[in-house]
Amino acid sequence: MSSLLCSWATTSSPLLAIPSSSSSSSSYSSSLVLYPKPKARKAARPFCSARRNDEENQNSNQENKLDRRNMLIGLGGLYSAANLGSNTLESSAAPIPAPDLSTCRPNLGPPVPYSCCPPDTPIVDFTLPTNPPMRTRPAAHLASADYINRYNRAVQLMRNLPATDPRNFLQQSYVHCAYCNGAYFYPALQGLNRGEIQVHGNWLFFPFHRWYLYFHERILGSLIGDPTFALPYWNWDSPYAMDAPAMYSNNRTYPALYNDRRNQLIYRRPVNLGTGTDSNQTQAQIANSNCAVMNNEMIRTATTLESFMGTPYRRGNAVPNGPGTSERGSHNAVHRWCGDPRLPAEEDMGNFYSAGRDPIFYGHHSNVDRMWTLWRQRRAANQRDFTDTDYLNSQFLFYDENSRLVRVRVGDCLDNTRLGYQFQTEGVFVTWTDCRPFTRVRGSRAARISDFPKLETLEFPLKLDKVVKVRVPRPRKSRTPKEKEEEVELLLIEDIEVDVGEFAQFNIFVDEEEDSFDDLTKAEFLGTFSHVRHKHDTPMKIKAQERLELNTLLDDLDVEGDEEILISLVPLAGISPLVVSRSALLLPPHKNACSDDQVLAYELYDAYYQKVHENNYY
Ligand code: C2O
């Protein structure tokens, strides 16, 4: 372990990154590439093949100590190794405490004033159940009529509770609202200031939503006297479940699960996990695109904890906004897709203040929660979670089925089975594990890349109102597989300025020569940045950051030997422009170890994919 820590101080020359101005204008050609049959593809390679059980935990712990200011310093010049050694600023005694409900504040501005402050009652500490009966969350598309009836009845009972009962459906939605719209503050403690609580865009994202659903589920179960009741999950990651599950669409049969404030297309068109909007793509094209997007955010660019989970967030620090791959990808896309475009603030799902008012939120987040579980399952046991106590000891408050205000910690929710629930696996297809893009054959790229501006020539701030292309020098090239296992090359984009009240998104491509940016199945697609509307009534700009892993993509494109890469920042059509400032760094060393089990599992998935394909499920 300590050797890992040492290597922090030996590597890193940073590089600058994102560029500006020259740009070829975007050509939105509609060419989409379908995945070939598996036989035609290069055999799937495990995305990592180390046999050691390295402990990424320890260095992610270290990584957490990386002061954001150091990154900014790195923008203009070298990323000094000395900075990496200083852990002093972020001492590990700063978990985010539970909110002080007495300081909860409403949001009164136009156009929609709202208050989502739940009742303030005495707090009890949560204790993990001992041997809880296992509840199995069903895939929503496969749920039986009997199950849906029970679920509908439970939600109806929840809606019928007195408006002031914290278990009431609207009160439940306030809990989510309060944690993400500036309503909650944690108290000043031990000399550290009070601060705003935000559960999106940082490492609290998965734990908060897991706890939120846990209590929601328990309340529903108690209302129908069924302690085995479990929420459904809408597995939008599957090609067979891309349209909204029927249980949410029937106002007459299942009125409690219905909500009029939704995009009316969601029942008959597949969700596009790359954009959250509709297009003229066919069902098969969207299925292929989604499969690649899922692979990218779950596997290809998510080999380290921080890439997947989001950025650290500690008491006393400004609220960070660095969502992980899953949150800014499929999670945000489904929110946007389900929100009602007829409403100015895209309620309910399209805006975090109202999202919890839509029953489909819970089916969506049950699947987001499942993504966390699936991601953890692919990793060695000692690499599944941050071990940082600031993470493990962060707290939230929720109401339980007895209307008690319960204080929970992040560290108690990491393994869903310990909370007494699991996800249905029978009959549920996970296809994206093998949707890694084509490996490209190296072409005559070198000549053309020089046509584009270099990073140093860009002027910041950079307005993303069109495609921006820039050449970015790499910190090192021709790294060996072993070196690549040990270090992840990252593109870091800092200071992305977003208006909290507006949806925003851009995609990032590497070495894309054809300017065809609507095909996300190609190896050149690196990832996305997106932002879902928050406090829609307060015009406010916030800064976001994003980190994108390059290791595998560079292999896919066969450009590991290149000195520079061409980055394209591609704003999505119809969205107001973002402003971005820079940078890319090589951050050492994020261990990418896989256990033998994982490698094996990958091969199994490959066989599985064959089977799925032969049966023409696509
Ligand atoms: Cu808290 Cu999907 O949002």
Automatic annotation (TrEMBL):
Binds 2 copper ions per subunit. Residues 45-66 are annotated as: Disordered. Coiled coil: none annotated. Residues 200-217, 358-369 form the Tyrosinase copper-binding domain. InterPro entries: Di-copper_centre_dom_sf, Polyphenol_oxidase, Polyphenol_oxidase_C, Polyphenol_oxidase_cen, Tyrosinase/Hemocyanin, Tyrosinase_Cu-bd. Disulfide bonds join 104-117, 116-177. Gene3D superfamilies: Di-copper center containing domain from catechol oxidase. Signal peptide: none annotated. Cu cation B binds at residues 331, 335, 365. SUPFAM superfamilies: Di-copper centre-containing domain (SSF48056). One of its GO terms (molecular function) is catechol oxidase activity. PROSITE patterns: TYROSINASE_1, TYROSINASE_2. Keywords: Copper, Disulfide bond, Metal-binding, Oxidoreductase, Thioether bond. GO terms for biological process: pigment biosynthetic process. There is a cross-link at residues 180-200 (2'-(S-cysteinyl)-histidine (Cys-His)). Cu cation A binds at residues 176, 200, 209. It holds the Pfam family PPO1_KFDV. Its cofactor is Cu(2+). Belongs to the tyrosinase family. This is Polyphenol oxidase, chloroplastic.
